[in-house]
Amino acid sequence: MRFRLVARGLAFDPETRAWVRGQALDAFGGLACHVSWVSIQVEDLNGPKGGVDKRCVVSLGGDRVAPLVLDVRDVNTTLAITRALRLARLSLLRCIQRSRSNGPPDRAGEPSLVSPAAGGAA
What we know:
By secondary structure, the protein is an alpha+beta fold. It has one domain: Ribosome hibernation promotion factor-like (Double Stranded RNA Binding Domain, 2-Layer Sandwich). It contains two helices and four strands; from the N terminus they run βαβββα. It has helices spanning 14-28, 77-102, and strands spanning 2-8, 37-44, 54-61, 68-74. The chain starts with a strand and ends in a 20-residue tail after the last helix.
C-alpha cells in the first residue's frame, strides 16, 4: 500500500509522521487487498487563531474499489486525523459490503448449471 502524508501550515516531526502512518495501517491494513494507495492531507486553515480549523482529507483507492475522499474538520489535529481515518474505514467497508451483496453485474442473466428437475444433482 502506497502512503502519502502532506502537511500544510503544520510542522510534523518524524514521530508524528510515524504515528499517522501507523494509524492508517491500523485502519486499512486488513483491507490491503482492496486499498492500494492512501493519501492524507492535513492543514491548519486559520493559523494560530484557533477554532474548528484543523482539516484532514483522506483519499484512498484501489483496483477493487472506487476512490473515496473524506474531509473532516476539528479543533484538534489528532482528532481530525483519527475521525477522518475512522470514517474512511467505515465508508470503505460499506463499499465492499455493497459490492459483495450486489454480486457481479454480468452474471444476473446467466442460466443456472443445476437443473431444477434433477433436485440439485448435477
